[in-house]
């Protein structure tokens, strides 16, 4: 067994079995990390149990002493005996102080290692990210600071609260139930069923409530992202007459958020019912069953003792536990999941390596510090259930700065793959990371900073040349725009349009001119990954070659080109050949040797010039 804490186990065992877009925080997902942690701290748990047994004894004594004080003292004219029993009860109550001290002493032996482990994990993760991507070290630092301060404290407090209340309920219940059993077993017949019913109802609400909470957060996040995105697109939407469509789509998200809120409210009502059943019903039933209990020979003292057990010990402990499990429990699961997922996202290991023949589905996972620019594994992509997948068990690892061409027959899935790598199409299975960051669940704004996908149709909107070029980096100054214009040789076009400040009439531009402006926009964008999906097809071969070279040489750029000419493939460092049943990945020379489809395609391209 390795040393460390509950969260450290995550480094070796955590995988991301969930599908993209799905919320990951579940108790089941954390259990593999919790079990070894608890096992390692079993001695602390035993000592905690020992102190808690004293709490059971104390609970037991309070009810018994009260019953004896009445039955053997005050109700039979022996006040000194009654007072003596009450004195014993008082001493047992006074013992609560030292007992609680002992409990807290052990609690720190459980809670502090959890906190230390979370801090170690946050620092390790921040260092890994900073080394992998120095440019984003500041962001990694901020995330680490949040984890080191707020999130570890939330986890620590929630965990401590849970341990305290769950433990207190269990040991109080033992004391109270044994006490009632000692006083009169009939008491249990009245008290235990409603308590069990309430507890069961409460447990049944846990999973659906967590799911409803997750759905609500998902819907809220998607809606917030969409609303934020729309704000920046208003001008385009109005220009294209697409406000109605955008409103329809957003309306659906609002409905989804409302439905998940209603579902959450329904489950909250069930939980309130559970609390009432477990918390209040036993007292009511005890009072209602008094005549029957008296008939069974249950004494007044035993009845008062049972009432004391319920009202003073059991029900407060039960309510405290239910509240803690409902609130602190879900907070703890969410926060721990963030730690576990963050590290699992960064250090998954054990993936196969790329084979010599360039076979797909066999790729090394990112090594910390050297995150590939594009990495995916286990991809299965289709357009709906029952349709033939376009790729299956597909993996790819591309280093930063590489130039990749994707080739294959028309309709084989090249554009779809480009959409998957861009985060625009969610794969049925598998995951995609860009520069080590998972793309699943990212907002359009975040995606725009990670990659640019240029489609075949260059989309130029009604606005100035400047606004068109700076669309993906609105803060870009004229210097930067001019560099793009000059690098891509767009000067004559921009001059003809009237300069950077001139308004563009998209309809007056040729398809090639629109593509040229879009290439300029890609050059200006901050994204390190550029994917050209036949987005130079309306340029002549020389202009196309120049544009590809300029974009590939843009500092820090990884370039993917869906090629419609052999020349694009020849310029690439490596070529991905899609052919439906299998794929091949390698250099031009290795593919000419190993891929019959690539030989066919090059023959076809050569023949058609
Ligand atoms: P390529 O880029 O290689 O020409 P695509 O990725 O565009 O291929 O398309 C691959 C297959 O998926 C084609 O059979 C196409 O008809 C189908 N396809 C593309 N887009 C959709 C869609 N939105 N819905 C259903 N099928 C689609």
TrEMBL record:
PROSITE patterns linked to this entry: ABC_TM1F (PS50929), ABC_TRANSPORTER_1 (PS00211), ABC_TRANSPORTER_2 (PS50893)
Subcellular location: Cell membrane
Molecular function in Gene Ontology: ATP binding
Domain of life where this protein originates: Bacteria
Record field: transmembrane: 82-100, 159-181, 187-207
Residue segments, region Disordered: 1-26, 345-364
Protein name, entry field: ATP-binding cassette subfamily C protein
Organism: Nocardiopsis terrae
